[in-house]
Amino acid sequence: KGLGGQKHQRASQIPSQFSQGERVAMKEALKGAIHIPTVSFGPKELNTTALAEFGEYIRSVFPTVFKTSFVQHEVIGEYSHLFTVQGSDPSLQPYMLLAHSDVVPAPDEGWEVPPFSGLERDGFIHGRGTLDNKNSVMAILQALELLLLRNYIPRRSFFIALGHDEEISGHNGAQKIAALLQARGVQLAFIVDEGNFILDGFIPNLKKPFAIIAVTEKGAINLMLQVNTTPGHSSAPPKETSIGILAAAVSRLEQTPMPNMFGSGLLKTTLQELAHEFPFPTNIILSNLWLFGPLVSRLIERNYITNALVRTTTALTMFNAGVKVNVIPPVAQAIINFRVDPAQTVQEVLELVKNIVADNRVQFQVLSAFDPLPVSPSDHQALGYQLLRQTIRSVFPEVNIVAPGVCIGNTDSRHYANLTTGIYRFNPLYLNPQSFRSIHGINEKISVRAYETQVKFIFEFVQNADTDQEPVPHLHEL
Ligand SMILES: CCCCCCCC/C=C\CCCCCCCC(=O)N[C@@H](Cc1ccc(O)cc1)C(=O)O
Ligand SMILES: [Zn+2]
Ligand SMILES: [Zn+2]
Question: What residue stretches are annotated with the Peptidase M20 dimerisation domain (predicted)?
């Protein structure tokens, strides 16, 4: 182990071009990964056989990663993987790339091809995990494998953390890796995880794609509502049953959206950065949000995806009641999943919920909750943000806008908040509304070309992280 006095190969000397054989091998490697059904079914239900197989699989397709002296590999929480790539310059603060190998379930119904087949059709690799998030697991390891094969020795150390239970909250994977690194005294320059994309077709009138790097993510609350009533014979029902009372309460919550927080959020900054990409008069409207803010926020909340950017969302996800057709139900339970807007806290949302329900027969139990994540810097000095921006510009020259934004879902990166102030959630892939719906939905797929570009992105990103960053002059120095 050790660098053995080898000289640093200067960044950007290695072009991000891959041979025909390498391109075939990289797509075949992804197909093989999709084929392993690493499904997280529920809080403690994982396909551990598949997760173990996946561990063996990455060893077989990325042999150079596993045999290189300056790459250390550890298995954490039985199925998660932590790689430490020792750079040649210990004065540079390390960074971390995150991804997860587990996927949500995918019953065959509705799929054009079986979800765990990894079949290639019409230039696309089909299957669960092609966008969320085996693409990233495989692309990160693939890029490292190719860099190592070209004798690249990184200057800046970095970690690769591959969680195995992100889809069920990351308690045994990301959380344990974070605790281990904290115990080792590691502090990171920044983290890059999944969470946002190059967005295409989400905003009417905006034909051009734009990259959003999520610099924060929403909080979340899983709240159980419960109503208990006296059971009895259904032939003489009381005026109200536990089911009726609970149904009315959850319906009030669904019909009463949480307040629109447009004015207090990051979205204003995002839209201002997008303004000059729009034709007249939208460009003028977005450049003058002090005047047109109320109009814009009403338009944004009309669409269910963009609505998630302006408020805490309320999703009724589970409902359980009744024991027999002719028994008045003693208990009714519902679970509501809230995604907390960065301008609010869990406590504020719970207060609003109780006021909306306004029925003391309804009991509340918080099953799990966490506040929105801190906002990571996106200024000229923010290394992680600027490296992403630089690499987006080089790999996707057609993308004019790179802006900071909010991740509406949650990611494993939240478990690492003690290790860095710079958490960036960005997948170097195009996403349109149809592909957005395929994530956790049906017909998830990635084009072979998009996957190759993701590998290229990471291949360049690692090298960019090794270049000396030009200090950005302050205005008064210009
Ligand atoms: C002006 C800009 C328009 C932008 C339009 C918005 C587009 C949205 C784009 C991408 C969002 C995709 C989010 C993917 C990341 C989410 C990953 C995920 O599914 N995480 C789970 C994690 C989790 C959390 C809690 C649990 O109990 C289990 C799993 C999630 O549900 O959030
Ligand atoms: Zn994911
Ligand atoms: Zn997911």
Answer: 216-359
